Amino acid sequence: RNKTSVDRTVKWLDECIARSPAGGAVFGSIVGGSNIEERKRCAQEVAVRNVSGYWIGGFGLGESMEERPSLLNAVTDNLPKDWPRMICGLGLPEEVLQGVAAGVDLFDSAYIYHLTIGGFALTFPLDRMEKNDYNYQLSDQGSDRTKINLRATVYRKDATPIVEDCCCYTCQNHTKAYINHLLNVHEMLAQILLEIHNTHHYLGFFRSIREAIKEGCFEQFQKKFVQSRREHLAADV
């Protein structure tokens, strides 16, 4: 099945390129499922064609955190470094870090949409993980070290912003209690305010990643983030 998928993907790519012989803004799709060899073959086939970048598909559909790096590397190790690599399906901070470590350049923003619809707000630190003393009340706040559930009753009278010192419009002008109220009465403004904050926070996360790469300490940044997350989950258990 994976072989057929790769064969058809390459065939369709050739048909698209044939319709634009002068070249165009075409991203070649990389597929292959959980088969490392087919992933590698697809990447090698697409890499020799006249494309403007690469779209890596089929991730975030059930593969484990442990097996994902080898699948990603099977793709990125066989792609030229001059063109952008985009991936869909990886949105959790840990997943994004795995993608960046493998050489992925672009990510979709569906994660922010799903967070917002669920009533969640991103809260994890953006200061390279040096300061992680957030003192969450796990059972009440539904926190997993990266986000909080603003539908929780604990926020009904919480007059503080989502994240202290956050400079987004939502945190500068509104409180957790107000957003909790909006969510509970099904007011659409709740999603707007959450979308503003979550987008701002997510962009800040990517800014921290770029800074870590620029300073040559991305591996350390990733390790600290993942370790902090694991410690939090262990405490929750």
TrEMBL record:
Q: Name one GO biological process term.
A: tRNA modification
Identify the SUPFAM superfamilies for this entry.
Answer: tRNA-guanine transglycosylase
Tell me which InterPro entries the record gives: Queuine_tRNA-ribosyltrfase, TGT-like_sf, tRNA_ribo_trans-like
Instruction: Write one Pfam family the protein is assigned to.
Output: TGT
Q: Which residues form the tRNA-guanine(15) transglycosylase-like domain?
A: 2-230
NCBIfam families tied to this protein = tgt_general
This chain belongs to which protein, by name? tRNA-guanine(15) transglycosylase-like domain-containing protein
Organism annotation: Citrus clementina
